[in-house]
Amino acid sequence: MAIADDLLTLAEHLTKPSVTDPEQAWLRRSISTAYYAVFHLLVGEAAQRWMGSPSEKLGLERAFKHEQMKEVSRAVTTGSWKGWSTPQLSVPLDLRRVADLFIKLQESRHEADYSNEKSWSQADVAGIVAEARVAFQQWKRISGSAVADEYLLSLLIGKKRE
Asked: For labelling alongside 113, which of 27, 126, 135, 145 has CA 20 to 30 A away?
């Protein structure tokens, strides 16, 4: 997960612009980078489970769609998500929290990237980046579990056919 870890480190660095840096640009980029750190964490985990070549893994990573990932994550947080196992696997709190943070980070990224109305404070942005760090920690606790693998599959494919 080197790129995901590097992005999280960069997001943390960007929360502390110097007085000569364009503060709002740095803070907005920090939010966007924090989201992409979590995005690449999840996409990278899914690609690691693929047994294909490096170019096939790259193709798999490119197949993930942000909106679909948000929809699946919303289903996980609301309890309406159905995984692929029969019987259904229970959804641990850590997975619900990762899904919730993914949604929050994506929404923050959209606001930071597309809305110039808001002026971001360093404290607000540090809080958002801290949430990305929490998502990494919680993902680490569930990574490799059957329910986490089903979540990754759902992020790529979407809803289970009934």
From this structure: 135
